[in-house]
Amino acid sequence: MELKTKISADNDKQELTITREFDLPVELLFKAYVEPEIVARWMGTKVLKLENKKHGGYQFETSDDKGNVVFRANGSIHNFIPNQNIVRTFEMENTPFPVQLEFLDFEKLTDDTSKLTIQIIYRSVAHRDQLLQLPFAQGINMAHNRLQEIANKLK
Amino acid sequence: MNLRRDVFQAIADPTRRAILLLVASQTMTAGAIAANFDTARPTVSKHLQILTECELLAQEQQGREIYYHINARNMKEVADFIEPFRKMWDDRFNKLENIMKNYKPKQ
Fold this sequence. Notes:
heterodimer, A: alpha+beta, 8-stranded antiparallel β-sheet, B: alpha+beta, elongated
C-alpha cells in the first residue's frame, strides 16, 4: 500500500521535509498536536509539559515496563498560531545529538481534509544523516507500540 | 547457534533503543554503556548481544576492551535510510488520524 507520508531530503542539505494529507478538518489535526493526552496516545510517550504558546516549552518522557526512564526530550515553542503554524525546537536529553529546529505548517484543503508540512533543520548534514539512521529514535522513540505491532505481523 | 533476530523485535525494547541513541555518534565500551542505566550489568550485556546479533551494533576489539558502535555500513545514501523513517512517521500519522476521527469534544 502506498504510504500517505512523503519525505524529501537533499543529499547535501541539512534539512528534510515531511508532508502528509489527512482525512481530518485542520482544526482536528491541530488539536492532535496541542492536547497533551492526545499527543501522548499517538506519539506513545508521557507528556510532562506542553505549553502551547509563544515562548512556551514542552517535555516528553518514555519509560520501560519497569518504570525506568529511558528517553526524555524537550523543546521551546517559538511560534504558535492555532490551526496554522507551530515553530519549535526539539532536543533529546542525555544524547550527543544537537537541538533541531522544526517548522510545522497546518493547511486546510477542504472542510474535511488538511495537510501538514514539517520542515526540520539540523545542525549539519552529518547530524541529519546520523539521526535518520535511527528512525526509531527520531521524533522520540515512540513508535514502540506500533513497531511491536508490525513486528508481530512479520512473525 | 542463535536464531537470527528480527530487527523490529530488537528495537521494540526501550532500553535497546536508548543504547542505540547513546552509541549513535561515539564508540563506547560495554562498561561505559552500562554506566548510563540503572539496569544490572548482565542485562545490559544481553541487550548488547541482541543488538549485535541483528547487526545494528558492531563490535571492535581494542586491546582488552570491546568497543561498540552503530553499524551503518549499508547506509551510505540518504535514500537508503529514509524509507524506515518515512514508515515510522506514516504509522504515527495513521494513528493520529484514527484517534481524531473518533474524537468527541468534551462537553
